[in-house]
């Protein structure tokens, strides 16, 4: 490389290192929507509610709903408290509220209402409660006041000496030692220890440059933090005052101390933080400028640490935001400087370095080097070579990269040594073996490269000699000189001394819950852990006698199916298994989400983007930064959020929430009631679980999600019940606190025991009388009913033998009567009647009936069937039988007097249908034709048994088909058979056999053509 180019490269590397932020791990914030993104004051009452002074008035937040809190009044304007800057939660559960023009107000939780107390009419800027319960009021215009809730009396308290004319009291603090601290327009005053309701205020001399004191805080060490309008920040400790920030014009508006002892300072242009030893932690947090999880605005007006340890930030333009401190989790988010190579924090590959630093590749294609503090120190590779997909360090300290479908060897400064093709496939994982070999898991198989042997990377083969194909996503050494391999195909193993991969057999019922493998981890103890896309985490328990692997399905047992464990598996010093999504503790058999509270958002966690740093920190890459985990600081949440009842509904109508300490009394006649309750865990309220149980009615808990917070009951019997309410925290741990609400449903007069007993006696007497009368009635009706039953039974029998549409008989009728008809025919034939007793079996089928339904509808088809039956019935003699045989087919059983007489009858039947068009329901006229197949019985008197009913019916059916084959609108009659048996030929060939006398109607060609249907 020419010297100028080298100098330019060195300059760019230095520039990239200088562009890193002073501290890389910034607090992450989540927002709560408030009107106009304006917050003037914050407070949390004893019950756990968060109270917010918004641009539209006072509101209360329960994690799900921002509820406006108003006083009583005739109009919306009269009910609104206006702009609220000052609130203080009293020890007795009440919340004191300072208004703009109406003085002091108080929220009474026992009555769930806000009541006005009056007092000074100037803007209330500060409130404090001392240890006697006295409420101190600082106003902008009327100075300092005190209010005694017991005596309900206001009293003005002048400032000392020359400050008597000072009317601006901007900050108040009732310290734990009994002192009252007063911040005002000219500085700071405080009382000596003693009775705080009668303070002897003294002025603390301050430099004139610091200006008005408008924020005060007592920390856990008893030190007093002093925030000034000039931007100065002071600390009073052991009688000494020292300044941590000098005046810079950026006013201090709010102070709060976090759970770790650090102090947050809200200013007009951002946030400062100081450690407990007063050293600055960070430069001021700037506005996020759209970066996820950043501070949404700069002008901070209110700070609050809630009961769960979260820090709430309110201000103008930033609205309301919440930071949930988590000592185990941090996010290395994007640098604010757009020129930084880490301005877009989308990591795609990570590699821990031996010096404690980290190599990071971005979606843009750059390869960055970060130090132990995760500050960018150098850009090793630019975008020109494409994005790096995977990295590993070789035994010789060289850097191996997978990118652009090839394997590359580099020096640690980024210089390329050599590159080999990987058939152009993407690389998911690179691993360096103890023997110096480099293993590449790709989207199309597994490659192994032995640098000491030279040559190109080689594909790993299966036992059949074919290369392993498909996605390979996981690799880890097996501790015996071989490798575990996982991918879309399943779990494989490459044993030491064997070139080919071997499938890992799995015991039936004890294998992996899902065949594909996303992640593999072998711990120092030799335990293998496997992650799959759907069944999650598994632990290898061993092998059975057949050599089949047996796995314990961890995620499935804990109800975490349908998702992976997180693919990027790591073990900490305590044996817990980590991924960017979950952590599993084998000792406690507990599976938790890593960030159930949402305290460390880093975008979408990417699979195969992870590293373990030298100090034990775990780093996982995401679309919006790096999640940094300190496992030694992690512990599952044991926070038990308080339960509150927000609303009551009786008979579907909202009711004013009464004092529920004595329980809920429902008046007689109440049909239903319901409650709205919530657990005040603001970390992740949508993740909470809720359950309720009405003792005396519900046999067990009724459980549901965050939308299951409104239990309701209806039609409860009078009596006493107890409603149990319970909730989990955001980690899914059920709170040991159960809210018990006694409920009494009062009885109406007619539900009282005495009234019920009297009513029961009267009912029994009436029932006995009614029973006697009813018995007599039933006996009289029994005779009439029996006769009616017999009549109806006969009618039902008749109806069951009829076709309901056409009125003809049905097959059931024929089945019941055909044997009798045949026996009668044979008996009469042996008598004087002779052949006159022979039967004629006709099958008549309406031609092209399907077209009637298709073209005119089923109603038209039904009309045709009904009219056809009427016309056929008119041609029959008494004693003949008309049967609807099926669909458009009719069976006629007649006695024409002679076999030859059947022919005219068949012709008359065809003519009866042909001579007049059929009338359809829509008024159209339709020409209908029919085909008839006819067979006489007995067909062969010498072989009655051969030509039985079944054969005769088959012959008639064959004749019907012959008539249709001859052109339809005609008949074919089989009158007799001599010497022919049904077994002599198939039924379809009977009509062609000699010995069968067959007569056919006039051919279709000799008749007028039938009209189209």
TrEMBL record:
<dbReference type="Pfam" id="PF00990">
    <property type="entry name" value="GGDEF"/>
</dbReference>
<dbReference type="InterPro" id="IPR000160">
    <property type="entry name" value="GGDEF_dom"/>
</dbReference>
<dbReference type="InterPro" id="IPR029787">
    <property type="entry name" value="Nucleotide_cyclase"/>
</dbReference>
<dbReference type="InterPro" id="IPR013783">
    <property type="entry name" value="Ig-like_fold"/>
</dbReference>
<dbReference type="InterPro" id="IPR050469">
    <property type="entry name" value="Diguanylate_Cyclase"/>
</dbReference>
<protein>
    <recommendedName>
        <fullName>diguanylate cyclase</fullName>
        <ecNumber>2.7.7.65</ecNumber>
    </recommendedName>
</protein>
<dbReference type="GO" id="GO:0052621">
    <property type="term" value="F:diguanylate cyclase activity"/>
</dbReference>
<dbReference type="Pfam" id="PF07494">
    <property type="entry name" value="Reg_prop"/>
</dbReference>
<dbReference type="InterPro" id="IPR015943">
    <property type="entry name" value="WD40/YVTN_repeat-like_dom_sf"/>
</dbReference>
<feature type="domain" description="GGDEF">
    <location>
        <begin position="837"/>
        <end position="976"/>
    </location>
</feature>
<dbReference type="InterPro" id="IPR043128">
    <property type="entry name" value="Rev_trsase/Diguanyl_cyclase"/>
</dbReference>
<dbReference type="Pfam" id="PF07495">
    <property type="entry name" value="Y_Y_Y"/>
</dbReference>
<dbReference type="InterPro" id="IPR011110">
    <property type="entry name" value="Reg_prop"/>
</dbReference>
<keyword id="KW-0732">Signal</keyword>
<feature type="signal peptide">
    <location>
        <begin position="1"/>
        <end position="22"/>
    </location>
</feature>
<dbReference type="InterPro" id="IPR011123">
    <property type="entry name" value="Y_Y_Y"/>
</dbReference>
